[in-house]
Description:
By secondary structure, the chain is of the alpha+beta class. Among the domains are: about 35-185, no CATH class; about 265-354, no CATH class. The protein is about 45% helix and about 15% strand. It contains 14 helices and twelve strands. Strand 10 and strand 11 form a beta hairpin. The longest helix has 22 residues, at about 85-105. The protein is globular. The model is unreliable at about 280-290 (pLDDT under 50).
Amino acid sequence: MVSPDIVHQRLVQQQLSHQGFESPDEVVGWLGAVQAQDYLGAKWALGLRMQHATDDVIERAFTDGSILRTHVMRPTWHFVTPANIRWMLELTAPRVKATLAAMDRQLELDEAQFLRSNTVIAKALEGGQQLTRAELGSALAQAGIVVEGTRLAHIVSHAELDAVVCSGPRRGKQFTYALLDERAPQARVLEREEALAELTRRYYTGHGPATVHDFAWWSGLTVTDAKVGLEMVASHLTQEVIDGKTYWFSASMPKTPEPSQAAFLLPTFDEFLVGFASFDKSRRGGRDASENLVLSSTIVIGGRVVGSWRRAFKKGAVVIELAPFAPLTAAEGEAITAAARRYGEFLSMPVVLT
């Protein structure tokens, strides 16, 4: 395996070049978790990895709870499956809380306060209630808890990290919260070592080839934990040293996948980019290392980022504006047109390219 092969292997393992799944929960379960603070983009990230995907299909899965959204791994939202949400939170929440601790102190929030607010939130949601963050804020305020400024966001985030709440169905365009016990009654509970091994296995199977530092970054766990997890599942993986770095991947992964020159219009924070600690210059299309392309919706061809894109809705169509880093060849233009057409089919809307 040489360096370009790593990229093509990741395209295969992440189901981008070979879509093998038919439902959103299959995609999320395969990857372990999918970063989802950009909700519309995250739905497209799932759609890219599915057969016959539409935005409506994924929205229905979110509504019926087949996939859930909560703060897990790094202080941001991810899609997770109901079966995995509890053990994953128990494993990663302590690290996320450590990240939030300094701001919690500034906001005069402590464990006693979170225990009190969790009790109020649980009471407000019991019996299948689904409330927006603002409505939870009203319930907290009525209980005498201060929720001004960013205090409410931190209070609700801690309720997620403490496995009290998770996402409920959307109410129009508003997000709601529901009790995790009611939304995911069959959630698995694992001992820490078993949970660490499970998350490690899912990461390298769904994302690999990847290094131990890639896994530590993605999971938010310490490098020490990442190494321990890797030791526990190493017998199920294969490794290869390239340019002095050891890459781990599924033992069942095809050794030499056929290179894909397909184009992908990746959403912001797509796992193909955000799932790894390193993002080498060859995948930036020669752009300067200081440019954080993870914060952009990117055009990828052959595993390399060749530009960025953005969308707008006008007169019943989705307008896709392309910003390639360099002039496109005829073949690249055709590939991007096909990718844009696929996005239009996902949204069930005609596409205009600019």
